[in-house]
Specification:
This protein has one domain. The chain has 18 helices and no strands. The protein has helices at residues 2-31, 34-54, 58-68, 73-97, 99-106, 112-137, 141-165, 170-196, 204-237, 242-255, 260-274, 278-315, 323-335, 337-348, 353-377, 379-405, 409-413, 417-434. Helix 4 runs parallel beside helix 9 (204-237), helix 11 runs antiparallel to helix 12 (278-315) and helix 14 (337-348) crosses helix 16. The longest helix has 38 residues, at 278-315.
Length: 435
Amino acid sequence: MQFARNVAWVFASSAAALPIGLATSILLARWLTVDDRGLYALLTTFTWLVFLLTQLGWGDAVIYRTHRHGVSPARAFSTGLVANGAVACAAFAVCLVFREPLTRAFLGDVSARAFWLAAATAPLLTIGDLLRGYARALDRFDLHNLYGILQLGGVLAALLVALPGLGGGLEAAVSAVLAVQVALVAGFGARIAALTGVEWRFDPPEALASLAYGAVMCVQNVLVHLHERVDVFLLAALSVSAFDIGLYAAAVSVVSPLRLIPGALGTVLLPRLAGALESDAAEFTAAVVRPTLLVMAATALGLAAVGAVAIPLLFGAAYAPAVTPFLVLLPGVTLVTVSRVLARYFAAIGNQRPLVILFTGVVLLNFALNLVLIPRFGILGAALASLVSYACEAAGATALFLSYSGRGLRATFLPRRTELAEYAERLRALVARAR
């Protein structure tokens, strides 16, 4: 019952996030110039990568340590907060020291002020991710999901004030994002501390144990997100114009909501699998991946039909060239669902190394394909590189899961008759409620 409840919480928040994310993308496209939209994409991607390099997988480690090893939430909270805070602040200082070479290499013509604002956001994302991990460890998915909704909704509200309300531009947009993160971390930090209790001490053995688990998760997360976002940096490094990067960012922003589905399920799966036997974890993972693929495929088909018309209509006629890369990215994002769900099985059994090797390989493949295809085809080349590497990631993750779990391909992916009957019944119930 708890798993079903948590899935319902996560999917409800994901459903609410879709229109908020779309509204934010439209606002940015309508208010910023296409060039500034491209620079905004570069800055937010830079912030996200700094966050990934500093979060150390601690949010997942907290779940693993409290569920499988019985560590007290108060000790995990105090130790994790000190360790993550120190690393995140050190990373911010490094960014400031190397601002000029980083800007020259990857960020185009962004101002020093915009860079500082983007860099300052990264430590707050790190602490925010840690707080969401504690919420999941406490089985408070309502708080975890509320954080995500407030983050998206807060950014949209702040942008409405900073852009149309106050007539701001790129720097105002980045400032709005930073302000939202400050408010969220302060408010949720107090709430999680009240739930876990605080020991007000740093526990080195616990920090080392969490780091031993989380470091591998961190590497895996970095590779996953590099796979998703490195193309934006490569477009800039290969001298693609900020205008074209803006077009590509628009295409990605419409596809990105699809990533919420496997991300949401992965969020719920890890606490559920962490305390299970390996055989039970494999069976449960397969039972989740089957309907997820069906939902993703149906959603992608609907999004393809709507997006081809909606992108130039909602974003503006200047964004019409974004339709083609959008359509190319869609099947790749659908396929990669497989690896993102199956990855939680390996995290739950504490054996992420095979996936790290796989993800390293597909990131290198994506990098090489981008270097070949971007000079020839521009942003379409970046989309094609993602499609091929996403398909390879899905195939590799499937092979690893079958090998380690001992399950067959049909037993993993082919829905059973009872499951199909259950899906049909739920669909009829939804239709009846809609009427």
